[in-house]
Design goal:
Blueprint (H helix, E strand, L loop, with lengths): L2 E5 L5 H10 L4 E5 L8 E2 L2 E5 L7 H10 E5 L9 H20 L6 E2 L4 E2 L5 E2 L4 E2 L4 E2 L4 E2 L4 E2 L4 E2 L4 E2 L4 E2 L4 E2 L4 E2 L4 E2 L4 E2 L4 E2 L4 E2 L4 E2 L8 E2 L4
Parallel strand pairs: 1-2, 1-5, 2-4, 6-9, 7-10, 8-11, 9-12, 10-13, 11-14, 12-15, 13-16, 14-17, 15-18, 16-19, 17-20, 18-21, 19-22, 21-23
Antiparallel strand pairs: 3-4
Amino acid sequence: MKKLIFLGTSSGISVFEEAAEAMGYEVYGVMDGDYTKGDEYWGIPVINSETVFDNPKLAQYYKQNFVFFNAINWLPMNDKISVRNTQKRHKFMQLIQQHNLECINIIEEGSYVSTKSTKLGTNIYLGHWIAIEPHCVVEDFVSLFGHTFLGHHTQVGENSQIQRHGEMYGNVRLGKNSYVGTHAGIVQDCVVGDNVWIQPGIRVCRNVENNEIIGATK
């Protein structure tokens, strides 16, 4: 099995590392231009900057010998750090797509995914005790954290994130780049747009337009 390189860093990288190792991958290192080659990020060596893909020979070497995972988390906040992390995550998504890098899905032990009819994209993280019922679609770059539930025929759009104990009650459509907070849920048959922020503990019982913030804004 090929060795794994994390693209970018985050406070959750140790979780990704342990889960990947449990799946049988060897974590080789991190590529992140914000750090110097030879540094360590939470014990994982920084091996290079992502700019190595500007060199065709190096790009080919890494593509042939490694698999990848975009390890940057994001928050929908407007503070400087959150905005930068969101931009940086999209930058790595574009890099992956531009160079057709092989990305893995990291799935924690104890999760249930209906293998007969559910479709998973790539660069997906599924935390502990995830339940994904039949006929669901989870698109690329989605993160579902521990104890999340997706009811049957639910679709989660690209780069969306559902935090711990999030619940989709069946036939839900969650758009891309949307964020569902801890203990939040969306009831059956609701359609939620792109770039939506559902704050912790909220139960959504209606359709949601693009760019809405559901819950307290401060």
